[in-house]
Amino acid sequence: MNTVQIVSAAIIVVCLLPLLLAGKKYQAFIEPYKEPFQFVFLAPAGLYLIDKTRLIYRLSSRLVAIQQKVATLYQAGREIQAYTKMYLAEIISSILICLLGGALLALANGGDQRMLILGGMMAVLLPAISIKKLDDKVKLRKQAIIFELPEFASKIALLVNAGETCQKALIRCTMMKQDDDNPLYKELKESVTKIQNGESFSQVMEEFSKRCGVQEVSAFTTTILLNYRRGGDQLSLSLRELAHTLWEKRKAISKTRGEQASSKLVFPMVFIFVAILLIVAYPALAIF
Questions:
Q1: Predicted model pTM
Q2: Which of 1, 5, 173, 283 has the largest CB neighbor count within 10 A?
Q3: Mutual orientation of helices 183-196 and 166-176 as an angle, nearest 10°?
């Protein structure tokens, strides 16, 4: 057995040891959070390492940004600590999978050190990709909310202008979109349920704004809370002005998405062009 095989065997033992030590200790903790996360089968190992190294406590100042994104994306609320812990466990699990895969491939190929190097590189890249993916999900969620908000604000303005109260207009507009999967309407449905259960309208709207975590939603809720008691023309005018601004932002998002879609098509088009060029040129080159 050469050095690479010994190192590979050691990596396999080190990676599997936390999973064996964790046992069934974290099953009850993992169960409520299984759906949003990947590599759940290795989550006990990640959670065991987090607890033993006190990782969250040691990196508390650096985890603030991640906690905010996790709270926004998964609507963690009071369970933000648990969601953050599961997210870190997912990252650790991805590292363990890369190291295990590299070590197993190295053993299978008779001690090929390139497999170990590849596994190590993937163990570094995957956490970075995971954090980037989290940023992208938060960004897409924000864009989805901004995309729907101007239409929603315009509908409320029309209903208020027609004599409906702000509270009833908000409930009616939300119920019209109760089957919509947009995050804006998901948050609105939760708010409408609270209003119908008798909770304070002002408090519900403030909580709605915090859950969305989008500046434009904060402007929307502030406009409503400042004017909903007055109602009538003042609220309708304020919402129309806000809706006009939001429509401009929606146009900007649509333009950005169009540009991104165009840029994604560049590589396939170049690939197809090269393939066609080779097909056309090959017979001529074969003659020579």
A1: 0.73
A2: 173
A3: 130
